[in-house]
Amino acid sequence: VTQLVTTINLAAIYGLLGIGISLTWAGLGFLNLAHGVTFAAAGYGAWLAQENVSDHASVIFLGGIVFGVVAGAIIWLSVFLPLDGKPNWDFRSIIASLGLAIIGVNTYLLVFGPQRKSIDFLFGTTKFELGGTTITADKSGAIISGTVVMVLLVVGLLTTKVGLGVRALTQNPEGAALVGIGRKQAAFAILTVSGALAGFAAVLLSQIFYPEPNIGYLPLLKGLIVALLGGLGSITGTVIAALLVAATEAVTLQYLDASWVLLTQFGLIAVVLLVRPRGVAGILEATRA
Amino acid sequence: VRRSLTGKNAVDTTFWGGSLLIALILFFVVYDNNNFAGHWEIFALYVSMNLMWMLVIGTAGIYSFATVAVVGACAYFGSLISGGSQAGTDVAGARSLNVVFMILAAAGFGALLGALIAAPTIRLRGVYFALFTIGLAEVARAIVRQHDVLGRSEGLFGGARFLRADQTASEDGRTIHFFVGLALIVFCLVVYRLVDSGRLGLLLRTARESEGVAKGLGIDVVRARFAVFIISSAVLGLIGGFYTGFYGGASLTIFDFNTLLLLLAMIVVGGVGSAKGAVIGTALLLYIDRTYADLDTPAWRFVWIGIIMFGVTLLTTRGLVGIPSQLRVYWERRRARQAPGEVAPAPAAPPELKVPGL
């Protein structure tokens, strides 16, 4: 039960990160390597909100999400708008987002210093028993809220006009353009929603990943692993991949130790990608290629 | 068309000749400056790594991020087989293997790693392969950290070096390291030129543009990709051997993600697919890196590196080295717009792709 709870807890958070990366790639053909910096921005946003406004959980969440959205908008403004439609967009957008990530990490270092910032427990410190295992309020809160946000995202994609546009872009970019779906507006929606999801994940993870300049690196790596393993563009695939990655991490932590986590996760990547080179549910790449 | 190793025209020859002259002048003018000798070693290693990385990422168009992992693993391998230990018994007399044999063995180990890394390219493409390789440095770091024989977090030093114990930190030692570094750069330039401009380079570029067309032409794409990985990784292994030859071994910092970022920034800023770009990008960013590393706020170095990388990516299509041709095209278009009655000359067409034997 302990491993199961840890798995679902991590999967809920990694899923939020993976979906952001996955949608950005599927909709825009843009592998956003500045997603880790967005994660860190949201962590600092949550901390600033806690220190300067109120330590109420809703304010901290709002601070994280707002900073995530702003970071997404900055990426739209500085990477997407200048480069979209230019020669070699695939490679140049990756490199530009990497450049932005380098600037971001080191700007955090200059502004906030190398020290970690602490954020209060958001769901209180209560605990309860389930099947002989103690579950903290933080874990259960992360599982429930992460799942709710993912469901809301899926509902939004299925029922709203913007969601329809994003889905059209992920399935057939040329067709979407022909029927008048604005690529710039859709890109803005994708990047800001991805930013909001990263912000939400950053606040949920703030008890494990305290805000500090380099804090976005590991979540970015996990988000990339989840998005690629899932098959870029598929939310179902991303959720399955998030569960696989989280289960690997939970089992590794239980039977080995933290230093083995990346090794076992890359072992998982090797196995899954060699069996299914386009990820668990990857069909999109075949149509894009 | 047969091209010379130094380049296809007078501009290339002037560039390479001028670069060599500048290196010699800098070294012999700033001869007493110990820092310059240290920077030169790093420059030689980075330029060489970038040239080999460019064969994979530029010529073959495969997003591989295994460069640092291969160099690091081979530096450790070289140190291990030539008497390196966790305690760092950095005594020249204690070495068990000649530095030349150590370097050759490291190159062989690199070729083996190259074959292993190339295997997934049969099935994986694009960003999937990037993900597969981006974590290799982290995997190598985790393996080193878990094994005493690899020195864990303290590093593995005491391997075979280019210098005798009495030569370290001496004028002779610095001179030897300068020419060893120069030899490494020249060797890597020759390998780059031979592969990039040779038959293998043409096959890889064809496969990069369209794998389907390449296969239709009868090109064995898998074999060509294996070949470029094995060649570049063998030379990366050699560079790892040189790393051990310079410093006596390696520590975990060799696998730093920041090193990978810095190398990528150098390639991108200079211009992917150009040996001149690799030299210009490495020199420029290493200068910034080293200048700010000595200041109170070293974080500024990566801010500037990020800004340059970001700016160059946004404003240029082929890095700094591509600016002249980009400006030429811009002026030609501008002239054509100003004189609508005249037919503007078309921009120079890219050279026709000819694959020997087809």
Largest sheet of chain B: 2 strands, antiparallel
| Radius of gyration of chain B over all CA atoms, rounded | 22 Å
Strand order of the largest sheet of chain A: 1-2
In the sheet with the most strands of chain B, the strands line up as: 1-2
Distance linking N and C termini of chain B: 16 Å
Q: Looking at the structure, what is the overall shape of chain A?
A: globular
The helix/strand order of chain B is HHHHHHEHHHHEHHHH
Q: What structural class is derived from the secondary structure elements of chain A?
A: mainly alpha
User: What proportion strand of chain B?
Assistant: under 5%
Structural class of chain B, by secondary structure, is: mainly alpha
Fold and architecture overview:
The complex is a heterodimer of chains A (289) and B (358). Chain A is mainly alpha-helical. Chain A is built from 12 helices and 2 strands. Helix content of chain A is 74%, strand content 3%. Chain B has a two-stranded antiparallel ribbon with strand order 1-2. The radius of gyration of chain B is 22 Å and the shape is globular. At the A-B interface, α3, α4, α9 and α11 of A face α5, α6, α11 and α13 of B.
Helix/strand layout:
The complex is a heterodimer of chains A (289) and B (358).
Chain A: H1 2-28, H2 35-52, H3 57-83, H4 89-112, E1 127-130, E2 133-136, H5 137-159, H6 161-171, H7 173-178, H8 183-204, H9 217-230, H10 235-255, H11 261-275, H12 284-288
Antiparallel strand pairs in A: 1-2
Helix pairs in contact in A: 1-5, 1-6, 1-8, 1-9, 1-10, 2-3, 2-4, 2-8, 2-9, 3-4, 3-8, 5-6, 5-8, 6-8, 9-10, 10-11
Chain B: H1 10-29, H2 34-59, H3 67-81, H4 99-118, H5 126-134, H6 136-145, E1 156-157, H7 171-197, H8 199-209, H9 211-216, H10 221-247, E2 249-250, H11 257-270, H12 275-293, H13 299-315, H14 323-338
Antiparallel strand pairs in B: 1-2
Helix pairs in contact in B: 2-7, 2-10, 2-11, 2-12, 3-4, 3-6, 3-10, 4-10, 7-8, 7-10, 8-10, 11-12, 11-13, 12-13
